[in-house]
Amino acid sequence: MKADRLLSILLLLQTRGRVPAHELADRLEVSVRTVYRDVEALSASGVPVYAERGRHGGIELLAGFRTDVTGLTADESRALFILAAQGAHAALGLDAALGSALRKVMAALPAPYRPAAEVTSRRILVDATRWKGGPQPAVDLDVLQDAVFADRRLRLRYRHSGAKEPSTYTVDPYGLVSKAGVWYLVADRRARPRLFRADRVHSATLLPDPVKRRPGVELAHAWEELRRQVEERPGGLDVTVRVRRSRLDMFLRLNASSLAELPEDQGENEWVTVRLSYGVVREARQLLQFADALEVVSPPEVRAEVAAAAASVTELYQRVGEGRS
After folding, report:
1. Which helix (H) or strand (E) holds 268?
2. Residue 93 has what DSSP assignment?
3. Long-range contacts of range 124-129, CB-CB < 8 Å, 24 or more positions apart?
4. Is the Cβ–Cβ distance between 102 and 81 less than 8 Å?
5. Which residues share a beta bridge with 49?
6. Residues 272, 245: contact at Cβ < 8 Å?
7. How many angstroms separate the Cα of 109 from the Cα of each of 77, 82, 262, 263?
8. Are residues 249 and 262 in contact, defined by beta-carbon separation less than 8 angstroms?
9. 187 to each of 23, 101, 229, 312, how far by Cα in Å?
10. 3-state class of 3 per DSSP?
């Protein structure tokens, strides 16, 4: 709609200052000629907007002009006040800034929208942390943030899962992502996308060199590529177990990331068949926590692995008991 387009141009000019006509046309998916017609319409309605031709020209508002129009619909206003749980903003040192920003947005909202936005902030909460995830280690994001916002390279001392000692990498960061309560640095190493868990970064040093990102690649693109690699990675090991119905809900919650598929409803049967997928046999040891309510059906090597883990635990308890006697 033309009204929405005019408002978008106005808000872009307020935010960006002078903007080339071709850039506005690309953002709004219209022709440059349409942009100039819209500028004339804004000017005719009293908005002090003007265009300068030439290599360094563009479209701009008269210096000092501001409008109180937010351009937000009722649903957009409510969406802004669906708050994330404490954690993400606090880790970035922005929790106080978030509260201040939302108060300013509330004051700028059209009066009819304010009650719904205020109720939304009290009734809906997004908590990205996983159940039973255990306490998350403190993560220092300061240097990572500095590199991201200053467009500088980073030297990382990073410990991979299962490694005893950290490795050293020079990387070109795209940005930071919080995934289910865990922070990741998305960066290129030797022009290839890599994912680094922030809580495994032993040290990070900001380098004087400017970042060297792949042309046309933004954080969202790099993250999507890495996320797809992780989620589509073949499990390699299909495991079938039977779980007591009384413990099924808890079992599914704690093993959600390993489920090959959701189990079919089997009525009132005491045992429910569940199919899982693991990368290696040793990962199946986590099934031991449900040993009193679980039976491994297949494959045989997983049955043997869980049985060996159970025997090790039993032997440990026996040794502890003998030491106390």
Report:
1. none
2. T
3. 124/82, 124/83, 125/82, 125/83, 125/84, 125/85, 126/82, 126/83, 126/84, 126/85, 127/84, 127/85, 128/84, 128/85, 128/87, 128/88, 128/178, 128/179, 128/180, 128/181, 129/85, 129/87, 129/180, 129/181
4. yes
5. 61
6. yes
7. 8, 15, 44, 47
8. no
9. 28, 29, 15, 41
10. helix
First to last CA, the chain: 83
pTM over 0.70: no
Token couple for 186: 């998305």
Q: Which residue has the tokens 């440990």?
A: 316
All residues at 6 or more sequence positions from 128 whose CB lies less than 8 Å from its CB, including other chains: 84, 85, 87, 88, 178, 179, 180, 181
pLDDT of the chain along its 325 residues, tens only?
576 788 778 778 877 788 888 888 888 888 988 988 888 888 888 888 888 877 777 898 887 776 655 566 777 777 777 765 556 677 777 777 777 777 777 777 777 778 888 877 777 666 666 655 555 555 678 899 899 999 999 999 998 866 778 899 999 999 998 887 788 899 999 999 999 988 889 999 999 999 999 999 999 999 999 888 877 665 568 889 999 888 888 888 888 778 877 776 556 678 888 888 887 788 888 888 888 888 999 989 888 888 888 777 666 666 655 655 5
Residue written as token pair 């942009």 = 35
Pairing of strands 125-126, 83-84: parallel
* Biggest CA pair distance of the chain: 94
